């Protein structure tokens, strides 16, 4: 169990309201409370964020890349880590890495990397967003039409097995 600590700041936004001259109390890696600075329990270590605004992180459910990495080109745990770290610098604290339509072997590599990233608890990584290859050609967007195809039973069986 990790020690409780507090981050103090001029303003904290909790998603609904602003709290001035407040403290974010963190216990065992989770936000426990937002308190006035003077209401913090004695002995709790404090880190002062000064005039910074503390706010909840963003959650992004479709991220193709970041930090110079496109997941389709680097479907590895290292690729996932680079993407998560790049987005964290801009306030996204949790995300799903997206693989767009690609060759079956790339999808397998992506799923293997996704499982490994989840197993090690890669910070910020929520899971995979598999986009394609079972799409409408009429609404393909950037997806390679040569790789788009209807779903077959073998595709469904594979996805269910990997879930």
From TrEMBL:
Q: Which UniProt keywords apply?
A: Hydrolase
Entries under InterPro entries matching the protein: Metal-dep_hydrolase_composite, Metal_Hydrolase
The protein's GO terms of the molecular function aspect are: N-acetylglucosamine-6-phosphate deacetylase activity
What is the designated name of this protein? N-acetylglucosamine-6-phosphate deacetylase
Q: What family classification does the UniProt entry report for this protein?
A: Belongs to the metallo-dependent hydrolases superfamily. NagA family.
Q: Give a yes or no for keyword Hydrolase in this entry.
A: yes
Q: Tell me which Gene Ontology terms the entry assigns under biological process.
A: N-acetylglucosamine catabolic process
Q: Which PANTHER family match?
A: N-ACETYLGLUCOSAMINE-6-PHOSPHATE DEACETYLASE
Question: What SUPFAM superfamilies does the annotation carry?
Answer: Composite domain of metallo-dependent hydrolases, Metallo-dependent hydrolases
Instruction: Give the source species.
Output: Agrobacterium albertimagni
As recorded in UniProt, coiled-coil segments are none
